Amino acid sequence: MRNTDQPARDPYLLGSLRKGLEVIDCFTRQESWSLAELAGALAQSKPTIFRILHTLEAFGYLDKDPTTGRYTLGLRFHTLGSVAVKHAQLRWQALPPLQDLARATGETVHVGILYDGEAICVQAVDGTRLVRMHAFVGKRTPAHASALGKVLLAHMPDAEIDALIANRGLARFTPHTLTDPAALREELHRVRSQGWALDNEEMEIGLRCLGAPITDHSGRPCACVAVSAPVSRMDPDRMAALVSEVKATAMRISRMLGSPTMVGAAFRAA
Question: Rounded to a whole number, what is the distance in angstroms from the first to the last CA of the chain?
């Protein structure tokens, strides 16, 4: 008979992941731990804790002091923490300007950032049109095939762009997707010069999206605001009007983030 005083085991919990998270939680109590200390604190065997520590160290989540053998949180956690804080600020400060842009255009608008080679939506407001693109927070899109991604890629150093292409490739999603590195670099140069980017049915046939950069307190691009609509509502005249509205919204959000100015090519590192 099962002991009803014990909590029922959740069949969907991954035991190994749970143990790894318990190890991570220990670092909220003290800055550094030895293998023996963690094994004792968690009532786990040293071989089990060692495998967890080794895995976390291999992925940059923990650092091991070669002299003392003690573990501390790695740069990966610091990076994720700073990104989370910035995204939370960006998400909520961007909402009122996005709502105004959605009302003015009737189209779906969104703000995204670049992370690990993908454009990630951090805030979105659906348009009022019957036929519209649906955006949602957390949506991920390959950077080379999106206006959000191209805006931010355009301000990255060439070496980082080359590394991204080498690591992730340039997948084709439609006949319009830029899959040639030279063509993509030419497009990014144009984006940097004109101050906005266009996804011309590169991710999905029948859908166009244009975006402009949001800059942070240092004046560097940190995110992008974009508007998406069916091709039938994105003719050249409408796009020209939308570019102006999107850039104005990007400037408004930038000022809310403390950006001093928006200077084009100066953002690009040598």
Answer: 70
